[in-house]
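Hey,
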Amino acid sequence: MAGEDTRMIKVMVVGASGVLGRLICMELLRIFNNQVTLIVTDYIEERGTRLAESIHREAIFRYLDATNEENITKTIQNVDIVIVAVNQQNPYIQRACIDHHILCIDVTPFPNFVEKVKRLHKDADKNDVGSIVMSGFFPGLSGLMVNKAVSSFQEVTEVNIGLLQNTNAKAGISGILDMLKIISQPVHYDTDSDTANLAGFTKKRKIYFMEPYNESEVRLIDHAEKDCLKQKLKVEQINYWTSWNNRFFNKQISLLRRLRVIDHILKRNNKKFLSKVVKHNPNKNEQAFLTVEVKGIIDHHECIKTLSLSTFSDYHTTAMVTAGLAKVTVHKKIKGVVFPFEITDMDEILSEINCKDIVLKGFITR
């Protein structure tokens, strides 16, 4: 796709009717300055048609059933980039994109699915096409921040990544289910001497975030981005942490996990229950924070480097990063199954996003 005229780029968004999918569509139009042909899909034709009309007068609707391989192959024809904002059991969309030499970008954060996509790496590499996994804020931007933070170190001994979520986030029920699934997983805690196996969202520590929260308590979680970073960056000790900006809410989530209520919600996919418990108030902020803390050696001195990012919305940032990756890849040759930090860097993606409400600060302590 190198050298291709961006005015002719055709981008398909699978799952465009969801909260995240709509945001991705908006950001594609903004970041590409409307010089993009936007194609939206849905498995309900009437809803998809209305969606296309509401997003942009020139948006195109195509029917797509993410479980039907024949339909997927037919639907993705004559498209340059496919962005996947729905959860799949099997990577049928990725498979079809590889077979037809179409770049694919997926936002799914779950390790089991990512592993299935990674098995397609040889085919993607052979077909000279890319398939990007774990696009977004967390994961996605988190990996880019880690890559930027470790770049100045001669030796890295420990990396900690912390996400401070907002209880008012406009994540949608699917986004809430995704996060509950992540925090309910058992986690391998990397220490100096060993790896301990712990229940997710139990072990606590404090991590620095920007004002007004400064040092806040976070809890250890499992994360699929971790293993890839360890392998690619050759760092043995990487841990992921998260909490919400309300201490009482964190205690509630911890209690629900211990009582196995979260397991019950996930098993039954109980969206109705969650819609009653979690409410979004559009009149209140949904600011979120992401911090990367690296310990190691710089210029023969032991030190800690901290990069901290503030954003007006974690979900909207996922949409911006995903749209930004689509723009970045227009003039790059991507081959194989890759993570965002393998094809771009923090400075480039923030430049493409061009959002004054995302702030990145860094400092070093010795």
